[in-house]
Design a protein that fits this description.
The protein is of the alpha/beta class. The chain is built from 30 helices and 41 strands. Helix 27 links the parallel strand 19 and strand 20.
Length: 1060
């Protein structure tokens, strides 16, 4: 990984030593004998040594000498018989020991004096100190500092030399040189990278986890995909904190060097020799090395960094059981596999390394490609293509930037086309390390996701891959731990674009001919195979997805030779020739707008997912008819059935209820009929595993009163009724104990919601504007009940004034209720309903969109409500972030909006999830959480013109329930209202320095406490063919509710807008 930092900030990671050695001495004792020999020996060995040749010394040491001490890595203090009488020497010693606290190594040399005499301050040293006390009786504190410094110095490990000893002075000096050589090598700064970008925040976040001031033992993991910068961050942290430890060691390439026994032993010897400063130390066996490391290091406060660890065994070979470290020690482990850290036991903190953001990525790429922070003007668009292609991966930015440096625009364009089709070899090799460590089934899971299932729901993919005997519940977890894939908050599988390209390249390397590859996803390759009828039994999956609707003529029976085909996905393709054969081994058949009935010779016993929406001629009778094979009971593995908008499918056959494994059913145009036995729980009929039922867009009258019986759907979790003609939600729905999601958007006739199920977690009623106010109040109160804000069942007879004055705002509710029941880790809640007013129980409010507050060790329950005012006529994403103690911002929640003005968004996260972020931020008694609002505008067409901006902002925070209210108003019309509550002592409003903005700062009030950052809602002028007025993006304001806070947190709303 490569980052870039300014010269001013780089000092965090390099100490900037000018001298290797500073020597403190008394000249009249040692200058022309021992000291000159020592100085010459140090210079001969190449040590940059500072020695003060100025014989004229006063009472106080000069500023130049103080700077020389501060700028030295090691100080040698030569104690001699006349050292203590010199106040100059004693002042030097005090300064040296101050620098020791900042990491300087101090080596005392006792030249012909007894260390015990100095420690007890007897003999000549005692006499000298007594004289100082008489001489400066008015400054006894100074003498006490000298005494303390002498005692502390004699407690350090040093080098005594006496007259008459067997060791010659030459040999004594050589012993000192050897020790210094070893010590300097142990304190040498590691080279981090040529260019550093974005390193500061990442290093600081990791240092918070390490907390070097604490005296406990901490093992901290750095986890991330290959090339994301784990080693770079670890090196920067090492340079920054190594001086806080007695001994330190950075051990690189543990995985690679652990492949043989000899390599493991060399690693053990490296640790021992670096930390014990004995380059000749030898280890005879792995077991002996483990014992030696444990025995010799268990009493030393050390910093040990193990880089690129791939297996737990590699740790055990170096550290044994990892339970023997001395107090204050820190161990940092970088790895691609989180399981390595998990199996260590205990709850060791893990720092997840994220890719660079777009600004950081562009800067890093520019530094390698142009040797400047910004791309050259002629190359700007091409540079943006590279940044987009690399998707923030530092390794790729560095390699490609270096490759393109000095090349012409024509060469750039050619290289970019190559990269899109053929991954860079060096990048591929680095990323493929994690893939090569997988077992065969895990490799197949990864390749299937890379080729077909990126962006698809995890549960859906698990069902399909499980039928292929790939054991995905275990394998997908393994891929996540190895950073090969991720699972987002919505349960969708994802992976870095370069990992996706790597997986597809692995498949392409199977053969030059598409017909001989295991997976085909490229439209051109799929077209060739299907139109030329060149398929083979080597093909396991094929995706035929045209970029635009096309008509295709298939050659004969294109699937006849694909006996092992398991996944068939077709989109945007129309065919006019009916075919007679589909492989019976298909697990997934996804073909929207399929123009025919399924082939008569197709036997779908293995089918797990059948998705053929918008198929005009599709009839279930083709599958369920008696002569093929004798009924629906042969579809024993079907779990997903999607027949959305199949116009000829007016009724479902009764045998549909025999699909005992069905989990997802999407039949909006079909009428689900009830039969006398269909839902007989004792007979075994009914949808007893159905989790998702989708009637979205149904043109029929849905008999919900008959269907919505919890006995019919005992495990139903998601119900979709959007765009239907329902008038009321059945009362019986409240008895569905497993229902989590209810989607009722655009139900124009919906008027009433009696009561929702008690475990509902997601309600989307956008644009269902006919809902009566009583139903809306009831929904709001139930949201309060679910989150513990309001007592159970207060909604009946709810107050009419439950809503506040109309305004765009965000609300927040916090509680420190210690008696609340523990929540499930994924117990999140999100309601979206029509409305412009925030409930009164969000009793702290503001027009604006960010806030700060204090929390203690336990994060209180946090609930947010946003009221949206005028929104643009384009799709936009609103995001809420939290950032605690300066760590990277945490996405609290997000929502896509589509002209959803005058709506309320209420959301809450599990206490566990927010507490994890707090724990991750190295919490103390008082924790500050802040995050200013950022607004990103994303357009698939022309960009937003941000030249014409106007601001509108207010911020609010409080620490306890309000006793008094103070309203502060600014003379600037850009600030509409500021409301503040009691126990706040300081208010600081800091406007952004944005060109063209005239923002005033409100006067500070003595009754406030906390820092507040001005936020702006930006008005933008769209560029387009037609004239557009300025559009207000967001126009969101905040309202926050607090109870008993003891820390500071900022939550913010972020809007990301794009064209559709």
């Amino acid at each position: 990984m490569a980052f870039q930092i300014s010269n001013a900030s780089s000092s965090s990671f390099t100490h900037g030593y000018i001298y290797d050695i500073f020597i403190s001495f008394r000249g009249e004792d040692t200058r022309y004998n021992f000291l000159d020999h020592l100085y010459q020996a140090l210079c001969d060995k190449g040590f940059n040594t500072f020695i003060d040749r100025n014989l004229q010394r006063g009472e106080e040491i000069s500023m130049e000498l103080l700077k020389a001490i501060e700028s030295s890595m090691i100080s040698i203090v030569v104690f001699s018989k006349n050292y203590a009488p010199s106040t100059w020497c004693l002042n030097e010693l005090v300064k040296i020991l101050e620098c020791k606290n900042n990491g300087q190594l101090v080596l005392p040399v006792f030249y012909k004096v007894d260390p015990g005499e100095i420690h007890k301050q007897e003999g000549q040293y005692g006499v000298a100190l007594a004289k100082h006390e008489k001489k400066i009786m008015d400054d006894m504190d100074k003498v006490q500092r000298w005494r303390a410094a002498l005692t502390k110095a004699t407690n350090l490990s040093g080098f005594p030399y006496k007259d008459g000893c067997m060791e010659s002075e030459f040999e004594f000096i050589q012993r000192i040189i050897k020790e210094i050589s070893s010590a300097k090598s142990n304190r040498t700064q590691l080279f981090v990278a040529k260019h550093l970008v974005g390193i500061n925040s990442r290093v600081e976040a990791l240092k918070l986890l390490l907390d070097t001031k604490s005296n406990d033992v901490r093992i901290v993991g750095i986890h991330g995909l290959g090339g994301v910068g784990k080693t770079t961050i670890a090196k920067a942290v090492y340079n920054s904190i190594a001086n806080h430890f007695e001994l330190s060691c950075f051990l690189e390439n543990v995985r690679e060097r652990s492949e043989t026994n000899d390599g493991i032993i060399q690693l053990q010897e490296t640790i021992l020799s670096k930390i014990l400063r004995d380059r000749y130390l030898k280890v005879s066996s792995i077991a002996e090395g483990i014992s030696m490391i444990m025995d010799r290091l268990c009493h030393t406060r050390l910093l040990l960094i193990l880089d690129d660890v791939d297996e737990l065994k590699e740790l055990e070979n170096l550290l044994g059981e990892c339970n023997w470290f001395a107090s204050g020690s820190r161990v940092i482990i970088t790895t691609r596999d989180k399981q390595v850290l998990t199996t260590l036991g205990r709850n060791h903190p893990i720092y997840e390394v994220q890719e660079l953001n777009s600004l950081e990525a562009r800067q890093l790429f520019s530094l390698h490609a142009f040797q400047t922070n910004e791309p050259e003007e002629d190359y700007a668009k091409l540079a943006e293509q590279v940044v987009h292609y690399t998707n923030g991966l530092p390794l790729a930015l560095k390699i490609i930037g270096s490759d393109l440096c000095g090349k012409s625009i024509i060469e750039w364009k050619s290289a970019l086309e190559k990269y899109k089709n053929i991954p860079h070899k060096k990048i591929q090799e680095k990323l493929k390390i994690s893939y090569d460590a997988l077992e065969e089934s895990e490799k197949n899971i990864f390749l299937n996701i890379a080729c077909f299932f990126k962006g698809v729901q995890k549960d859906y993919v698990v069902d399909i891959l499980d039928s292929c005997n790939l054991y995905p519940n275990y394998g997908i977890r393994k891929l996540v731990d190895k950073c090969l894939i991720t699972i987002d908050q919505y349960g969708q599988l994802s992976m870095h674009d370069l990992l996706e390209q790597m997986g597809r390249e692995i498949v392409q390397q199977e053969s030059e001919e598409p017909k001989n590859r295991s997976r085909i996803w490229c439209y051109k390759d799929a077209y060739e195979v299907l139109t030329r009828n060149t398929g083979s039994d080597k093909i396991h999956g094929i995706m035929l997805c045209a970029p635009e609707p096309v008509t295709m003529k298939l050659q004969n029976e294109p699937f006849e030779r694909m006996e092992n085909l398991k996944f068939l996905l077709v989109r945007n393709v129309k065919i006019y020739e009916e075919f007679e054969y589909l492989p019976n081994g298909l697990r997934l058949l996804q073909w929207p707008e399929f123009p025919f009935s399924l082939p008569s010779k197709y036997y779908p016993q293995q089918l797990v997912a059948l998705e053929m929406p918008h198929s005009l001629n599709f009839r279930l009778e083709t599958i369920f008819k008696q002569e093929f094979p004798s009924s629906v009971k042969y579809l024993t593995k079907l779990k997903s059935l999607d027949l959305d908008d199949c116009q000829n499918l007016m009724d479902l056959p009764d045998s549909i209820y025999n699909l005992q494994l069905l989990e997802r059913l999407d039949i909006p145009t079909a009428k689900l009929r009830l039969t006398c036995n269909s839902f007989d729980g004792f007979s075994g009929y009914g949808f007893f595993r159905l989790e998702q039922l989708d009637f979205k867009g149904s043109k029929n009258v849905i008999e919900l009163d008959l269907l919505m019986n919890p006995n019919y759907f005992p495990v139903l979790r998601h119900l979709y009724l959007s765009y239907t003609n329902i008038v009321s939600i059945p009362e019986s729905l409240s008895r569905f104990t497993t229902l989590e999601t209810l989607e009722i958007t655009d139900c124009t006739q919906l008027r009433e919601i009696p009561r929702l199920p008690q475990f509902i977690r997601r309600l989307d009623a956008r644009r269902s504007l006919s809902l009566n106010q009583q139903s809306l109040n009831r929904v709001l109160n139930q949201f309060g009940e679910i989150n513990g804000i309001l007592p159970k069942r207060i909604c009946e007879g709810a107050r009419r004034d439950i809503l506040m004055d109309p305004q765009s705002s965000i609300g927040l509710w916090l509680s420190n209720n210690e008696d609340s029941e523990p929540e499930d880790e994924n117990d999140n809640c999100c309601f979206i309903i029509p409305g412009t007013k925030i409930p009164k129980w969000f009793n702290h409010q503001s027009v604006g969109n960010s806030i700060s507050f204090w929390v203690g060790h336990k994060f209180p329950k946090l609930v947010v409500c946003i009221a949206f005012g005028l929104l643009p006529r384009y799709s936009c994403c609103c995001k809420i972030y939290l950032a605690i103690n300066g760590c990277e911002k945490f996405l609290y929640d997000s929502i896509w909006l589509d002209e959803d003005s005058d709506h309320l968004w209420l959301c809450s996260k599990s206490d566990h999830q927010v507490q994890k972020i707090l724990n991750y931020s190295n919490p103390s008694e008082h924790n500050y959480v802040e995050e200013p609002k950022f607004v990103y505008f994303k357009s698939s067409h022309k960009p937003w013109n941000l030249g014409n901006l106007r601001s509108h902002f207010s911020a609010f925070a409080a620490t306890t329930p309000p006793e008094t209210t103070i309203d502060a108003f600014s003379s600037s019309s850009s600030i509409s209202r500021l409301s503040f509550f009691s126990n706040l002592q300081t208010l600081q409003l800091q406007p952004y320095n944005t060109s063209g903005l005239n923002v005033s700062v409100a006067q500070q009030s003595e009754s406030f406490h906390g820092d507040f950052m001005f936020e702006m809602e930006k008005w933008v002028q769209l560029e387009g063919e037609r004239a557009c007025p300025a559009v207000c993006i967001g126009q969101v304001s905040t309202c926050w509710n607090f109870c008993s806070l003891a820390g500071a947190v900022t939550a913010s709303a972020e809007a990301i807008c794009s064209f559709r």
